[in-house]
Write a structure and sequence with these properties.
This protein is α+β, with helices and mostly antiparallel strands. The protein is built from 17 helices and 16 strands. About 40% of the residues lie in helices and about 20% in strands. Helix 1 runs antiparallel to helix 6, helix 6 packs parallel to helix 11 (about 240-255) and helix 14 packs across helix 17 (about 420-430). Bound molecules: adenosine monophosphate (AMP).
Length: about 450
């Protein structure tokens, strides 16, 4: 690479930056999502965990399953200098379970509610809503196997989406039942696939036979016209599994969370059992899955711990951000820009400090040193709603004027007093224009 050539980010890996040209990668939208997650999950007793991005490759082979697309085709794996096989995590649950087992939570506090967020890596073909480094927000709830834990996690997620005002998502839900139900279902599916296999290319026949659940979940099958006539998992559930699933559905009805039962929803990973679910949208085209999860009651023991029930969920932040960016105008980054005339930057900073002491208005003091007209232009460009000048005249008369940049001629004179400036600015931001404050 020539020295003068710029170095670019890796394909499928995005920068999350202020004023991003692609609105959904704007850090402001991301902070909003993270904030809503933190507020909601903490309100349900979830605690934050931050886990390594790199794990032993074996963790995913054992945890997610060597036959899954994620593990067989999409992992970023490498050998480190010590010859260890390592992988950039493609999902969060396996690492969370590893940590749960490694720190022996099952001994002292088996019931744990954890939430996390961070980058995941999958070598998929990038397109809108699908990236090679993407971010997930997820929750894992260990140690409880009751129907109530399924219903509670769905309440938590529903509230998270409500906090983001995403009210057009569809919740689809299914049950994979226990081991016995799954075997029943696989046998039934094999009979069904055998009848229709002539409609699919020969190279898929092995997969239809050896991994019928995965084939049921594939795009080829979903789009084949046979999807509607596939046998319903519910008819293969053991009695216990059926009673459990009915309990979850009636729990959802009781808490008023709408859902659609989707007999073809199996999710791509090996570790799920009983309840599986997905939230999807009609607003994002092909990448319509916003988040999904389910029970994984065997995973803790498969990764070396004692049998411990668990349920979890993960949502992609990029897709949430795409939805939010498409919603109406976002909150402005700064509510008030203070524009100091030459030589008055210190005064402006001191004034801004005392306004911040009084309340929660987001203020940027313009320290560019530009001329006044250029500062006004910039304030508008960076998304400030209000602007106020501080200079010789303002200090001498102890007064200034707050201008609303979104409405021509909308302005209010105000004394240079932190409390008054705060109150007038807040009124203007909330659309309440008083006559005269002082
Ligand atoms: P999964 O673990 O595959 O169920 O993914 C959970 C959520 O992560 C999905 O519903 C998406 O929102 C998001 N997600 C998965 N893969 C990608 C990707 N390659 N790019 C962006 N988001 C993704």
């Amino acid at each position: 690479m020539a020295k003068s050539e710029i170095v670019r980010a890796i394909k499928g890996m995005n920068d999350i930056v202020p004023f991003a040209p692609e609105n959904f990668l704007d850090s402001k939208i991301w902070q909003k999502i993270v904030h809503a997650a933190e507020e909601t999950f903490e309100a349900y007793g979830y605690r934050f965990v931050r886990l390594p991005v790199v794990e032993d490759t074996q963790l995913f082979i054992r945890g997610v399953g060597s036959e899954t697309d994620i593990v067989s085709k999409e992992m970023y794996s490498f050998e480190d200098r010590g010859g260890r096989r390592l992988t950039l995590r493609p999902e969060g649950t396996a690492g969370a379970v590893r940590a749960y087992v490694e720190h022996s939570y099952f001994h002292h506090q088996p019931v744990q509610r954890w939430w996390y967020l961070g980058p995941m890596f999958r070598a998929e073909r990038p397109q809108k809503g699908r990236y090679r480094q993407f971010y997930q927000i997820g929750v894992e709830f260990f140690g409880v196997d009751s129907v109530a834990s399924d219903v509670e996690i769905l309440c938590t997620l529903n509230r998270f989406f409500q906090a983001l005002k995403l009210d057009t998502l569809t919740l689809r839900i299914n049950s994979l039942g226990d081991e016995k139900s799954r075997q029943n279902y696989e046998a039934t599916l094999c009979v069904f696939f055998d009848k229709i296999k002539k409609d699919f290319p020969d190279d898929l026949h092995d997969r239809m036979k050896n991994n019928p659940l995965r084939f049921l979940d594939s795009k080829v099958f979903r789009q084949s016209g046979h999807a509607d006539s596939a046998p319903d998992m519910i008819d293969s559930l053991s009695e216990d599994a059926r009673t459990r699933f009915d309990g979850v559905l009636s729990g959802l009805n009781r808490v008023g969370i709408p859902f659609k039962r989707d007999p073809t929803l199996v999710r791509g990973l090996d570790y799920y059992s009983h309840t599986v679910f997905e939230f999807s949208t009609q607003d994002l085209g092909a990448q319509d899955a916003i988040g999904g999860g389910g029970r994984y009651d065997q995973l803790v023991s498969e990764l070396g711990g004692p049998a411990t029930p668990a349920i979890g969920f993960a949502a992609g932040i990029e897709r949430l951000a795409l939805l939010l960016a498409a919603q109406e105008e976002q909150d402005k980054a700064f509510e008030l820009c203070i524009l100091p005339m030459e030589g008055y930057a210190q005064e402006a900073i001191i004034l801004a400090e005392s306004i911040r002491d009084v309340g929660d208005i987001k203020i940027e003091v313009d320290l560019t040193g530009l001329r006044l007209k250029a500062m006004f232009k910039r304030a508008d460009k960076i998304g400030a709603r209000l602007a106020m000048v501080v200079g010789e005249d303002e200090i001498a008369h102890k007064r200034s004027t707050i201008r609303d940049l979104s409405q021509r001629d909308a302005e209010q004179e105000v004394a240079l007093d932190a409390r008054l400036i705060h109150d007038v600015a807040r009124d203007m931001l909330d659309g309440r224009m008083g006559s005269d404050e002082s």
